[in-house]
Amino acid sequence: MKIIIKNGRVIDPSQNLDCTTDLYIARGHIVGLDTPPEGFEPNQTIDAKAKWILPGLVDMQARLGEPGHNQTGHIASETKAAVAGGITSLCCPPDTDPVTDTQAVAELIQRRARQAATAFVMPIGALTQGLKGEHLSEMYALKQGGCVALSQANQPIQNPLILKNALEYAASHNLLVILRSENHQLKNHGVAHSGAVSTRLGLPSIPASAETTALARDLILVEEAGVRAHFSQISCARSVEMIQQAKQRGLPVTCDVAIHQLFLTEMDLLDFSSLVHVTPPLRSQADRDALRLGVKMGVIDAIVSDHTPRGRDEKQLPFGESKPGISGLETLLALTLRLVDDKVLSLSQAIQLLTEQPANILGLNCGSLQLGSSADLVIFDPESYWTLHSESMLSEGKNSPFSGWEFSGQVEMTFFQGRPVYLANAV
């Protein structure tokens, strides 16, 4: 297929591009901007007047329910939800069943993604066997199997010697390590941020120090190992300060925040809704404001969905007994653009946090509309208003606390490798 998308506002931070122009697609790639390549004869013309053309989004943290958790989604269903939200590239953390600690599991995930042919799915390998934090995984084999990074998902290594060995081994293979900093002893089976709200509700609490003490340790070991490290889902003000200081000292570190942490706080727990049970927990308004400032100032490098689809039975339980997680693929772009409306970010900053910067962290050639790149892109109508209803979500997980929220701007079409994989009116 040869396609012209005409008269759209092309916004691509990777090229400092924000202008109304035409975009040309052939053989699954972008072959022209403004002027067509010689002899270009289109099969299809799309008029994108008054619409935005954005690079396909890159989500560094999205659970897809496969392998092993198919009752709450699978790669085919969750990638459909992803492209409905404009996401064309996703990283799948290793807490699958079986754990992504072998080349065979990594290749299985990629094979299922190719069969679905909806979005680019990149497995993240486990740092330790079975995510148990005891024995190192075969990191080089995982890299050969297509893993773009290594992590422990939400099961951080507690033994500092094992973590030190893991970081040094990863550094020897030039592998990116994604870390969730958390001290299990200080977490102590807590489910809510340690503060007035958890005290009032009688919920076991998690102090901010459960994150910051582990982060301090991790930063020291990262510096010693010389490994490229990305800190995922930071949640408190002190963490922002510590990562800023580490960057100022020249450490090769980056970080991200889950989109829900930029909107929700511990105050949203007051009605005991398990839909806001997440890990790390929603923290204070001061923490949320610090995270927003960290995103604005460039300390935080990417925003992720932390998509965790849950079944109704897993959420319709008392708060402390419910499974943590939010179904976030379909609201990642909408919520990030609300930060533009709230004057937290410029439009270019918002798009960059979801495209160019996560792609650069992962070392991938995506999140861009440069000539020759894969035609993964979004046509977005900024004047369309819509309300999220959980029952109409495409994800198998309907567990969103944002159900009932009204959003301005909606994904109209999503292209993956030059093919339309989502059309709003067709759903």
- Please, what is the average pLDDT? 96
What is the number of E strands? 18
Strand content: 15-25%
> From the alpha-carbon coordinates, what is the Rg to the nearest angstrom?
21 Å
Profile the largest sheet: 8 strands, mixed
Structural class: alpha/beta
Instruction: Compute the separation of the termini in Å.
Output: 23 Å
* Overall CATH class: Alpha Beta
- Unreliable parts: none
Counting DSSP H or I runs of 4 or more residues, the number of helices is: 13
CATH topology: TIM Barrel
CATH architectural grouping: Alpha-Beta Barrel
Task: State the fourth-level CATH superfamily.
Answer: Metal-dependent hydrolases
Shape: globular
Helix content: 25-40%
Counting structural domains, the number is: 1
Question: What structural keywords apply?
Answer:
TIM Barrel, 23% strand, 427 residues, single chain, eight-stranded mixed beta sheet, eight-stranded parallel beta sheet, alpha/beta
Q: How would you sum up this structure, described in words?
A:
The structure is a single chain. The chain has a single domain (55-362), classed as Metal-dependent hydrolases (TIM Barrel), CATH 3.20.20. Helix 4 packs across helix 7 and helix 11 (332-341) runs antiparallel to helix 12 (347-354). Strands 1, 2, 3, 4, 5, 16, 17 and 18 form an eight-stranded mixed β-sheet that branches. The protein has helices spanning 75-84, 103-116, 139-144, 160-172, 184-187, 196-201, 209-225, 237-248, 285-297, 312-315, 332-341, 347-354, 356-362; strands at residues 2-12, 17-26, 29-33, 44-47, 52-55, 57-59, 87-92, 120-126, 149-151, 177-179, 192-193, 205-206, 229-231, 253-258, 302-304, 377-387, 406-416, 419-423. The chain contains 13 helices and 18 strands. The radius of gyration is 21 Å and the shape is globular. It is an alpha/beta fold and 427 residues long. Strand 14 (253-258), helix 9 and strand 15 (302-304) form a beta-alpha-beta unit.
